Amino acid sequence: MIRKEAELILEIRNLHASVEDKAILQGVNLSIRAGEIHAVMGRNGSGKSTLSKVIAGHPEYIVTSGTVKFQGHNLLELEPEERARLGVFMGFQYPVEIPGVSNLEFLRVATNSRREKRGQEELDTFDFEDLVRERLKVVQMDPIFLERSVNEGFSGGEKKRNEILQMALLEPLLAILDETDSGLDIDALRIVAAGVNQLANPQNATLLITHYQRLLNEITPDFVHVMAAGKILRTGGKELALELEQSGYDWIDKEQNHMEAK
Amino acid sequence: MSSQNSLGELVSQPYKYGFVTEIETEKIPKGLNEEVIRLISAKKEEPEFLLDFRLKAYKQWLNIKEPNWAELGYPPIDYQDLVYYAAPKQTQKKNSLEEVDPKLLETFDKLGIPLSEQKRLSNVAVDAVFDSVSIATTYKEQLAEHGVVFCSISEAVSEYPELVEKYIGKVVPPNDNFFAALNSAVFSDGSFVFIPKGVQCPMELSSYFRINSGDTGQFERTLIIAEEASSVSYLEGCTAPMFDTKTLHAAVVELIALDNSSIKYSTVQNWYSGDEEGIGGIYNFVTKRGHCKGKRSKISWSQVETGSAITWKYPSCILQGEESIGEFYSVALTNNLQKADTGTKMIHIGPKTRSTIVSKGISAGNSSNSYRGLVQMGPKASGARNYSQCDSMLIGDKAAANTYPYIRSNQPKASIEHEASTCRISEDQLFYLQSRGIGFEEAVSMMVSGFCRDVFNQLPMEFAAEADKLLALKLEGSVG
Q1: Which residue of A has its CA nearest to B444?
Q2: How many residue pairs from chains A and B have C-beta atoms closer than 8 A?
Q3: Which pLDDT tens digit goes with each residue over A61-108?
Q4: Residues of chain B neighbouring A79 (CB-CB closer than 8 A)
Q5: Across-strand partners of A33?
Q6: What are the tens digits of pLDDT across the range A122-149?
Q7: Where are the domains of chain B?
Q8: Model ipTM?
């Protein structure tokens, strides 16, 4: 939902970042307002996943220049946990398994750390169980997954549902979903997408990182950005994604060659 | 933020039990010879049999070489440069707590082990050992009503000499190994527990060992006897001040379980481990062994080892009685330059004996942590079973973990299962937890306590939470 007067949630200016001394982001500009759904598309290696990791604060990604503002906070100065408490959420492409740590306990500690920042009271184990059982419905997840260790032995689809469950509990202002559609069959994709749609509201924003149109058939973006070589090359409405689906990414090479020739 | 660095900082935090109690101490001169042993025995007014036991052990010790097979690599210890007996003065025969030096009571208060009647733990009887002597035992009278004897071993020697003579050195003979022989020759004090036939000990028993003197060797001896159809749960805790010299600690623990009895022995070991450069700390060479003598008897060891510069310790079970059960649950955390070589021996002698080994080693800093275990199936152990699980967790990239399982079977109808795994706390796991709002320290501590959960579940309830806290404390520090 595009409202020009809506609050600016995320503002990225001329962002450059590298990993292991290799420059990946080369001047990204992006503004996201409350209520909006953005999609960043691009080929492998275009820098779209790097963008999500830099916003979330992964320690391996070094910002070399540029700014990232989140509701007026300088995000780049904050530890990943502080970003999360303020309402930044990243759904991982490959959620890691954490043996021995109970999923339920993990969800409770995470939820309480966000609640504390928002000035809400801490939930004890009983109140939290009630909340988590209600939110499980968002992703049609079996409560049995709460008893297990975090993501341990979960299938690809179960891991992604667990990500959206975390999103449902943390109620982020900005949800970045990094290739959430990868490795999902169509049923699982629909469940995950339905969850994301349920959670989107006029106060929060969603940033989808994806390779394919098929996720955007389920979640309709307000803006589509095409990334290549660490920059946003083009921005358009949802029709841009359809155009990409038909013509592929080859035009990017032409456009880039053209730009370099200039 | 570099996770490697902050991990390093996180696992090194100051030792909070490092204070020294200023108290007048009676010490004998340094050095070890027959005269010293006679002097110790005389000071303790021991019966003839015990002096003979000590002298025999001393002669055997002279002929045993110090073991060097464990991967510990410590500089040679000069056994003539140690004091073998130290005791706080005026502690002769205390009849009640009111007569104990308030400084000693204060020391134990500070360690979180209040002894006075008003403050003492409600369901735990405590024997407090300060340097070489036991200074107080709580709830003695209440236990006596059930026929349970819980006192210092010195007291047992004078009050129940026939029991001591019958059992001492039977599970761990003096010539068993170098450190056991040394302990048998010079042991100062320790705890004694006797649970008579048919009695379920009504409360947790606990000994708390405190080393205070710097140049004094610590040699306690613990003896626990559970008669037919009895049961007891016992916990020992240990701390020591920070000195820049090494302190030697060589204890012997013997457990005897008769028919249908059960002994649960838990340890939370937090001796001073030395500083980041490896200066100071306790050398902990301990021989612990339980004898499941009776049918369907059970001995269960659980230990949380976090302290000491060097740990050399293998709590073991001799499973002689038919259908007897041995268990070993261990968490060993090493950091900085700490070295631990620990594990167990399960010696299956009787038929249908069973044993379970769960060992969790966590190595951080430049430390090294080895599991060493033996499972032996004797020719009569038909239908015996063992299950072992040894997991190692590495924090940072300079720590080492080793696993040495030894398996010997002379019985085709015995089954032995061994599983081992090694994992590292990865940057990705930490980032995942952090990206959900969980702070760095809490993230590490969640993963470590998750890793140790199987073992913590085995600790007595009162202490499980404490052990969890202890590990968290050990891992606490500034986040870089």
Answers
A1: A101
A2: 80
A3: 999 999 999 998 999 999 999 999 999 999 999 999 998 899 999 999
A4: 1, 434, 439-440, 479
A5: A8
A6: 999 899 999 999 999 999 999 999 999 9
A7: 19-421
A8: 0.95
